[in-house]
Specification:
This protein has about 190 residues and is α/β, with parallel strands linked by helices. It has a single domain, classed as 3-Layer(aba) Sandwich (Rossmann fold), CATH 3.40.50. The chain is built from 7 helices and 9 strands. The longest helix is centred in the C-terminal third of the chain and has 15 residues.
Length: about 190
């Protein structure tokens, strides 16, 4: 029988590059299973249903919550809801696949409660100024949305100590390789 795998939970402030790092893992390490979250927000340009997120209606999300189908879920940026479908996570871990969730801070806290054996990884920006530059550079949010996300990011940065490991996202490939190494190697609290 295959040994169950370790679940890595990647979280950090908005615009730190979680999605970019996760995409790099997906591209360079096809053996790693990455969860696809469900969300009630509208797709951004270029996002594909079932690849980037499962885009669902509020009613569909309510049904998933009521039926216990989500490992975690939260309202993010005081707007849309996001959640991790539980079944695919359990199946990947049982099959022994290296597995990773890319979620927000609230979700990471719920995973800690529901799966205490998961390794929580905090992805940190090199500096506050760099985080602001990345958020503004995306050009996908209105000014009001950027301000809301920056307010959220300040609170999220203060939660770093709740995580098992911190990785500073100086460079995407290096951060992705550190994540993959955590899936198979020993876990020690380190910050780069």
């Amino acid at each position: 029988m295959t040994e169950p795998s370790r679940l890595i939970v990647l979280a950090g402030p908005t615009a730190v590059g979680k999605g970019t790092v996760a995409a790099d893992v997906r591209r360079r390490h096809p053996e790693v299973w990455l969860s696809v979250s469900a969300t009630t927000r509208a797709p951004r340009p270029g996002e594909v249903n079932g690849v980037h997120y499962w885009f669902v209606s509020d009613d569909e999300f309510d049904a998933m919550v009521a039926q216990g189908e989500l490992l975690e879920w939260a309202v993010v940026h005081k707007a849309a809801r996001y959640g991790t479908p539980r079944g695919p996570v359990d199946a990947a871990l049982t099959a022994g696949q290296p597995a990773m969730l890319e979620i927000d801070l609230q979700g990471a806290r719920q995973v800690r409660e529901n799966m205490p054996e998961a390794v929580l990884v905090f992805l940190k920006p090199p500096s506050w100024d760099e985080l602001v530059r990345r958020l503004v550079g995306r050009g996908t949010e209105s000014e009001a949305e950027r301000e809301r996300r920056l307010e959220t990011a300040r609170a999220e940065l203060a939660a770093e100590s709740e995580f098992d490991v911190t990785i500073v996202n100086h460079e995407v490939h290096a951060a992705a390789e550190q994540l993959v190494a955590l899936m198979v190697g020993p876990v020690s609290n380190r910050s780069d």
